[in-house]
Specification:
This protein is mainly α. 79% of the residues lie in helices and 0% in strands. It folds into two domains: 8-199 and 259-459, MFS general substrate transporter like domains (Growth Hormone, Chain: A); 200-258.
Length: 469
Amino acid sequence: MQTSQLQRTGLMVLLAGQLLPMIDFSIVNVALDAMAHTLQATAIELALIVAVYGIAFAICLAMGGRLGDNYGRRRVFLAGVWIFGIASLLCGIANSVGLLMFARALQGVGAAFIVPQILATLHITLKGRAHARAIGLYGGIGGLAFIIGQVLGGFLIKADIGGYGWRSVFLINLPICLFVLITARRFVPETQNTQRVPVDVSGTLLLAGAIGCLMLALALGPLLHWSWPCILLLVLFPLFLHRLRQSSLRLEAANGAPLLPPSLLRLPSVRFGLTLAVLFFSCWSGFMFSVALTLQAGLGLTAFQSGNAFIALGVAYFIGAMQSTRIVERLGKRGALLMGCGIQMVGLLALIATLQLAWPQVGIFTLIPATVLIGFGQSFIVSTFYRIGMSGVPHHQAGAGSAVLSTVQQSALGLGPMLLGGVFTQIYTHGNHLAAITGTLGVELVMMALLVIFTSLNRRTFQPVTAEG
């Protein structure tokens, strides 16, 4: 294993690179109406513009981790930034829906090359308290970037800088890409495994099939009224997963290197991290989607005003993430996670009460107490997710471990708006936005309660482990 110490400047460069994928996961949501007007896009085309990014991102994450292990994590990180920058430029100049979809998919590929290298580099080059602080920053920046996307997107649309309108939400990536490309080579150390392993082509294709079937079905199902192509995609999803599992078991039994190593998936820390990711991150993105929809469609706020409603949540999230290292040291990972879940649930209850009492005169400032609680709770959950998930991963599998966790995380982020958005739509049958958002937040409370129960029953996951190997 080739490795050297990561300095503070290098850490800042990696975190700047992390901003790119997470901002673009949410920033496009506030630009959809303007895109539809300019490009004459249909509802299905708009759904695909959102979905293809998440699908390409999730599909290519595991491959991105493997390439970083084999060819150098800094090298693949820089390649990802190049791809992301070029794709952002194409999005900004797109004059057709087809070109915009292609560019969004290319953005997803670039993002998938960026993200695994960051977490793997932190895992390998830092130890002890420095590692804990870096993971706290990683979780804080990642979550904050998701919220920044909502706020920044609304601002850019309203400001219409240079007359670029919605195109500016993509062009804003270019200076960030340029900064990272200039500084990363100097300040980010190169790390890679000394022995390269072959690329698992079969595993890559099967994973792509599984993720593609699930996310496309959920993205297009409501728009196509769950016609037979959507049902077929859902039927194919478990078949692809089964074939992927069988292929990975055979390859690992033959001393090969599957894309998703079953031995890695058997680690208690990884399995717990995957369950946490499914329950929490789908809840998180679903919350952002359903609340933004309620603020705009139900209360008549503009995209800019809706984005501003998340500022208090974002500030609280960042402050909480910066304090997460101390909280984990004092309470342990399990205690910090349970505390985060508890605060989040209190915040959701407070938000339900606020909406019920103030509707329809719900102002941005009225939401601050509830959203601050939600932001603090989310920050502790996200920070412990990375700490727990990577805690038992051997160094030679750092890229694969990072990619596995990130794949499920990004898939859950993509599924959240589809699943909880579906709940919102089902309840919203008689034009009652208040009933729809209250019911959706209630489902999120149930999901958080399940996470609390799961955490309480899994003490073994939180036993001290070593990641050497």
